[in-house]
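TICKET: design request
STATUS: open
ATTACHED STRUCTURE:
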């Protein structure tokens, strides 16, 4: 079983010809509401791209968005028994602008995601005990993430952490991570802003491994992935596609990677599956609407 701990948002997506300048009112194009949130996106990607059962731990508001988001997870076969509905709280939302080149700009209001607590994690202990892989991101409180990482590590689970949005993390947390998957910006944030901090992905990955992470995958968008693994370092070029919308590309990669890992694939094969899934995803619009199914790969 794969257990994903993290955020669940409704994405409010607006197509724009370009990003607006400060103070500018810009006429946009099509508007859609699409289920998203890094945690939910990764759970959906794990479910669609593999054969292992998937469960989600998170929080929703007891509102219209919350009901829709829960139904979307259930529709993908995800166990939502530990997705709490919090009365009087708004579900999380993300306001997303997507330009004509497929690049996006995102602002998040955490809502119920900000109330995911260590108590919610402890209540899901039976679920975590059945897991083989536990996946986390940083759109929920850092204290809760640290608690969940420690618990999963102590239970002997494979811990996958996507440190997004970018933030610094205690060394004790990083030392309990089996697969750390940042992009270049997130890797730089983890390493700290100093003159001696490495700028090249290869050096970033090596430095993060030396901090205690067993394996580090630095995702580079159209340039692929640099992996610093226990077995050695390797570059994985990306598939060349024409991007329509890069929303959830990283989440799709992680879901494809974890789905393969959970059924016994080695890291290189799992990275390949994640890259194929992400290459398809960026040719489609939206977050969960863009995530492909295993048979499409």
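STATUS: resolved
RESOLUTION: sequence designed for all positions
ATTACHED SEQUENCE:
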């Amino acid at each position: 079983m794969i257990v994903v701990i993290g955020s669940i948002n409704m994405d409010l997506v607006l197509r724009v010809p370009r990003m607006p300048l400060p103070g500018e009112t810009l006429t946009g194009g099509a508007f859609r509401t699409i289920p998203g949130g890094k945690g939910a996106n990764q759970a959906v990607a794990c479910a669609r791209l593999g054969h292992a059962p998937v469960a989600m731990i998170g929080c929703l508001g007891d509102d219209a968005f919350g009901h829709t988001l829960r139904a979307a997870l259930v529709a993908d076969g995800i166990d939502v028994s530990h997705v709490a509905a919090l009365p009087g709280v708004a579900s999380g939302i993300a306001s997303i602008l997507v330009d004509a080149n497929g690049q996006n700009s995102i602002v998040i209001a955490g809502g119920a995601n900000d109330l995911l607590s260590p108590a919610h994690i402890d209540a899901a202990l039976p679920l975590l005990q059945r897991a083989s892989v536990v996946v986390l991101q940083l759109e929920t409180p850092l204290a809760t993430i640290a608690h969940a990482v420690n618990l999963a590590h102590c239970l002997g689970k494979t811990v996958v952490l996507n440190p997004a949005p970018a933030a610094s993390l205690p060394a004790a947390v990083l030392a309990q991570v089996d697969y750390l998957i940042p992009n270049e910006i997130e890797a730089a944030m983890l390493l700290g802003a100093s003159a001696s901090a490495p700028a090249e992905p290869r050096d970033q990955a090596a430095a993060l491994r030396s901090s205690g992470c067993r394996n580090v995958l630095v995702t580079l968008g159209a340039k692929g992935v640099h992996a610093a693994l226990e077995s050695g370092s390797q570059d994985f070029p990306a598939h060349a596609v024409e991007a329509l919308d890069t929303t959830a590309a990283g989440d799709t990669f992680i879901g494809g990677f974890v789905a393969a890992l959970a059924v016994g694939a080695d890291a290189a094969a799992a990275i390949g599956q994640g890259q194929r899934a992400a290459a398809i995803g960026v040719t489609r619009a939206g977050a969960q609407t863009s995530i492909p199914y295993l048979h499409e790969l």
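CLOSING REMARK: The mean pLDDT is 94. The chain has ten helices and 13 strands.
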